[in-house]
Amino acid sequence: MSGNGTVSVLMGIYNCEDTLSEAIDSIVAQTYTDWHLILCDDASTDRTLAVAEAYRERYPDKITILKNEQHRFLAYALNRCLEEADGEFVARMDGDDVSLPTRFETQVAFLREHEEIDLVGTAMQRFDEDGDGAVDRREERPDRFSIHRGAPFNHATILARRSVYDALGGYTVLPRTERGQDLDLWARFFHAGYQGANLPDVLYRVRENRAAYRRRTAHVRWITCKTKCYAYRLLRYPWHWYIKPIAELGKVMVPSGLVRRLRKRRAKR
């Protein structure tokens, strides 16, 4: 599939058979219809691939499926998707989340109207089996110093010009980017002089179940710290800023259940 204005949607999928249908349905329901969904199954051990293949049979001209023979993590899967992407724009999507119907239409229109912006994210609504949680909004105009304050973009919500991914060479595949591959991307994005923006509109729903909290292990905290330090060096942050990512390693001592309860309490305020 090709054509000016096409949105190539990158979706790495792994053991998400229960949520994948809802995620794909939300892409099919987009008011912006010039899209191409590229899924890379990262050696799932459940019926994730079968669910994806059923959708490809229904939409053979709109959906492409790739398969990894072994589990290689998200950065590798997304790079494989990029190899099949030929749209003017590239969007992200996860297999357990939901894009609201006007998401692509709104983001493409924004980039058309703002030629100086290379990538645009959106606000997202957190939800789980108990209902809606907090709305996560990021800085309207993040810059090279935003990484010190937090994630500059909600990764799964972004839509970028394809030229950005081409120039940056896609995602970095290293042991430290088994998680946090987006943080590595943001560091290289700002280092290259690109500009991004975030819309205040909630155009994405991100699922946060118990499994999502349990994945925040000591190993994940450690490799995230390594990637943050890489970003700090690349962007030439002052040395005393390194205290923050090192101190964040202590979060591993907080039980995942407590983190989940605290986030729910903040959402109710």
State the share of residues found in helices, binned by percent: 25-40%
Beta-strand percentage range = 15-25%
The top level CATH class name:
Alpha Beta
Please give the largest β-sheet. 9 strands, mixed
Total beta strand runs: 9
Mean pLDDT: 92
CATH topology: Spore Coat Polysaccharide Biosynthesis Protein SpsA, Chain A
Overall 3D form: globular
Tell me what the CATH architecture is.
Answer: Alpha-Beta Complex
Give a concise summary.
This protein is 39% helix and 21% strand.
Tell me what you see in this structure.
The protein is of the alpha/beta class. It has a single domain (7-208), classed as Spore Coat Polysaccharide Biosynthesis Protein SpsA, Chain A (Alpha-Beta Complex), CATH 3.90.550. It is built from eleven helices and nine strands. The chain has helices spanning 20-28, 48-58, 74-84, 103-113, 146-149, 162-168, 181-191, 210-214, 218-234, 243-247, 256-268, and strands at 7-13, 35-41, 63-67, 89-92, 98-99, 119-128, 131-136, 159-161, 196-207. Strands 1, 2, 3, 4, 5, 6, 7, 8 and 9 form a nine-stranded mixed β-sheet that branches. Helix 7 (181-191) runs parallel beside helix 9 (218-234). The radius of gyration is 18 Å and the shape is globular. The N and C termini lie far apart (46 Å).
